[in-house]
Amino acid sequence: MITKEKITIHCKDLIKELSLDYLSLEKQEEIINEMSEVVYDRILLRVLGKLTEEDSIKLTKLIDDGKELEATDILFKKVSDFDSILKREMLDFQHEIIQAVK
User: Fold this and answer.
1) 47 closest CA partner among 9, 76, 5
2) What is the pLDDT of residues 3-36, one digit of tens each?
3) For burial by CB atoms within 10 Å, which of 3, 13, 69, 83 has the most?
4) Are the beta carbons of 38 and 1 closer than 8 angstroms?
5) pLDDT, tens digit (0-9, with 9 covering 90-100), for 40-84
6) What is the residue extent of each domain of the chain?
7) What's the distance, Cα to Cα, between the start and end of the chain in Å?
8) Burial classification of residue 47, based on how many CB atoms lie within 10 Å of its CB (0-12 exposed, 13-18 middle, 19 or more buried)
9) DSSP 8-state assignment for residue 22
10) In whole angstroms, how far apart are CA 24 and each of 14, 20, 21, 63, 96?
């Protein structure tokens, strides 16, 4: 899924920025997966509020069925500012992590 791939790439960059690249690759992957899930869930929560109830139900069903690519297509079509929401949530998450580490 394009969105999850973008989030994962961003989280990999965040690992380097936080100087956590000394960790084993297995541990880095574990952290990246956890961070990606948190960001993805935050994005979904923000956009679900912008969808109709019908679209929200359809989107949730697609995600539950493992059809993330189709879900992303709906998000891009139905939420005009989806890209900016994606960027904002990723930046907010990055800022929160950096502040927590300091």
Assistant:
1) 76
2) 778 888 888 988 988 888 899 999 999 999 999 9
3) 3
4) no
5) 889 888 888 888 999 989 988 998 998 888 888 888 888 888 888
6) 2-101
7) 32
8) buried
9) T
10) 15, 9, 8, 31, 23
Q: Take residue 43 and report the two structure tokens written for it.
A: 């994005």
What 3-state DSSP class applies to 79?
coil
CA pair distance 82, 31, nearest whole angstrom: 25
Distance of CA 101 to the CA centre of its chain: 20
**Residue 80, φ and ψ in degrees, nearest 5:** -60, -30
Q: Please tell me the pTM assigned to this model.
A: 0.78
**Cβ–Cβ under 8 Å, residues 86 and 40:** no
59: phi then psi, degrees, rounded to nearest 5? -65, -45
Q: How many CB atoms lie under 10 A from the CB of residue 22?
A: 8
* Length reported for the chain: 102
Mean pLDDT of 91-100: 88
